[in-house]
Structures are given as C-alpha cells and as structure tokens.
Amino acid sequence: MKPTTRVRVIDLETTGSNPPAHAVCEIGWQDVVLGDDGRWSLDAGHGASFVDPGRSIPPVTMAVHHIMDEDVAGAPFWPEIAPSILRPEKGVAALAAHRASFEQRFCTPKLSGGAPWICTWKCALRLWPDSPSFSNQVLRYWRMPEGLDHARGLPVHRAFPDAYVTAHHLRDQLNEAGLDQLLAWSAEPGLLPRVPYGADRGSYWHELDDNLLKRYTSDRNEDVRFSARKEVERRSGDAFEPDDGAAQGELL
C-alpha cells in the first residue's frame, strides 16, 4: 500500500491536558485507507496500548476514562511507543483526530515524523453544519454512520473506541470532500456555523445584523473571529481587513 492511501486516526487518554505537566496513559488508533475503487474505508490497521505516564493518574481524570495506576504499571513510556504507532511501516498520508489540536500537544513532530493532521471536528463544521453539536459522540448518534458497530465504539473516553468512532466520521468526510480539502480546512481555524456562546448563542452568522457581527470579528476566540470574518467577507465580497481596534484586540 502506498503511503498516500492511509490516514491513521489517533485518540489519546491522558493525565491532563497540558504537557509536560501531564502525560499519555493510553493510545488507540484506527486506519482509514483508499481502495482501488476510489473510496475510503476502515481497514484492519487498528489497536490500543496502555502507556506509563511516569506519574500518578489524578482522580479527576480517572473519573473520565477509568484508567488506574495499576492498569499502566509496566507499560512502555510515551517516547518508546509513540513513534511506532505514529509512523507505521507503510507510512501515512496524514494523522487524524477529533479536535486534533489536543492530540498534537502530545504527538509532537519529532514523534510523528512531521505528518500533517486532519481535524475531524473542523471538517464536520464545514460538511455537517446543521448538526446539533460537533462532539465525536453527538455526531455519532446524529449521523449514525454506516457500518459502525455500536458495542465496538464503547466505552466512551477510551482510546480505541473513540478512535473507531472518529474513523467513521473521517471515512465519510474523505469520501465527500477528499484528502486535500480536509487538510486545507484543518490548517485553518474552525468555521463555526453558529455563535457558540453569549446572548446570541445558537444564532447563525447570517442572522446577525452588521453591527453585531462586527463585534465578533475581534472576539478573543480564534474560531469565533474567523467565522465572523468569513461572514463579513461573504456579505461584502471582499477579503476582511480588521480596523485598528480589531487588530489591537488580537494583540491583547
């Protein structure tokens, strides 16, 4: 199989969200491959492994994934196991994860070989904007992807089941939009279809008047700024250029 025909979905369970203070305690993966018929599908490349985080797992994170210290005792450390999973022998066109920015904190270019990443969350925002939410599990039950075995995708918040569910979203995204488009969308901030918080929460950007929309173009949240500016561009037909106030807001 050529390297450009495989995307490996990665899911991590960790002791927290901020390395190096926190570390990986489980990794799961599921491959999605391009067949001779030009369609992407899941294949036999999958697995999971405990990882010794080199520290105790806090109770607050145990309560999420239910992985305990005794489960990871004697498991390989992250630098020992990560390269063989992130850089498989047959190569990958990309790595993928739902909200991939989290996995990328731990899967550094040194460990991954510099592979590009697809964020299935960002791609879902583009392809399925009417979803009630864009979490991995809400998309699972809103979309009901073909071929997804319910039991195999459980329990939630364990590395392989979550990777397995994400791989079904990725398969459908690849078949709908193609690899290059997913990579391009993943390289940009998330294009939110609706305002995510505040008094306008749940409103589509096109429903906001010009003055209200302009306020969001200098929001602290990168995804909100990007989404509001895209709507400004749609209305004007020109590339968005922040005024001095918006630029100052970004610097702050």
UniProtKB/TrEMBL annotation:
Top-level taxon of origin: Bacteria
Gene Ontology terms describing biological process: DNA metabolic process
SUPFAM superfamilies, per database record: Ribonuclease H-like
InterPro entries: Ribonucl_H, RNaseH-like_sf, RNaseH_sf
Protein name: 3'-5' exonuclease
All residue ranges annotated as the Exonuclease domain in the record: 6-179
Region (Disordered): 231-252
Keywords tagged on the record: Exonuclease, Hydrolase, Nuclease
GO molecular function, one term: exonuclease activity
